[in-house]
């Protein structure tokens, strides 16, 4: 039918000013959302064009009225609203930075019989205020409640970096306004996180799922064992230099990230690397805000080559020319590892990701997770602690067994790949991996 699909293309070209869809996942997802026949789950990496998957159907989909967009990031929300407004689209936000007068104006519009507003951006906190519920009730009564889009929906899962407790309650809304179709959008996530999203948001089955592949073909992955090395810092330095490339000595273009378990080890690793001639700076939550931003700023400008940070610490910006990501201590989950290592090679050029695994780190993490499990009181805490433990076991397997690293990760992310052939140590140097694993086994203390 040329009906709404024609309108979708016309809106893409004339309202958004795009010639075509940016990729086939975007195209398929938009057509599905626009048809409004079922709930939709979309997962694509940052920058792949997820916003359009609800923005375009909000204007050209089969449903009338207002699309409510839930997003935890006020800054990005404000940017999106401005961009939409500059394209002549009526978008509003009701986040806490908006004045009382503005809120009154927008609320009045939303409660009218034919609201102008097409997209309404709100934070997850706001969704649960009485004022907001009466707005939604009114939209529903007027048959002007088009869609709910949950951006950054991985925040519902504690496995994502950005777990956001308010997201857990959003599922109540799905039940209350049961006829309004939902769209959930995430970065690339493991099957576990995807299932959390479907479950906690109460998405209505059968959910249409659209996912971009998780394969990062330009990244070379490997794992080494700290306890089997005479001097792991020397190894880290030569790993860094080889990832940065020969040109780097002259151009200083390209940089790296090292992840550590604690603030103290960040300081220590940065200090060691700097003394070995590789300009490095620690950046962690223990530093003053201005020192953190200074470190990030200097790193982005190339004044320092390596930033050393704690696992799970969120950096403000991604830069494309990261040539390596080293985990000085193993990540706690595959989702964490995929996101952290995935900061390498954003420009599509070759990049390397290495884990410095150690039995000591592993046992420390296992102890912490076991204690959490024992301390858990409520059923929910128990389930969480147990899945944290299970999730870490998958990282253990990644490090302690010889499987193609790409295939291993992709399987966790619900994609398929038989073997990468030469983009990981297991495929490229199987004998040396076997030797390293034997050596690691042999270091076990009885
Ligand atoms: P994500 O939310 O997946 O990180 P965004 O929605 O922020 O990605 O989009 C990333 C960029 O891609 C934006 O600048 C957006 O304008 C652009 N973009 C999205 N769709 C298209 C398209 N079909 N054609 C060209 N550019 C697009
Ligand atoms: Mg986005
Ligand atoms: Zn491989």
TrEMBL record:
<protein>
    <recommendedName>
        <fullName>ATP-dependent DNA helicase</fullName>
    </recommendedName>
</protein>
<comment type="similarity">
    <text>Belongs to the helicase family. RecQ subfamily.</text>
</comment>
<feature type="domain" description="Helicase ATP-binding">
    <location>
        <begin position="31"/>
        <end position="207"/>
    </location>
</feature>
<feature type="domain" description="Helicase C-terminal">
    <location>
        <begin position="235"/>
        <end position="384"/>
    </location>
</feature>
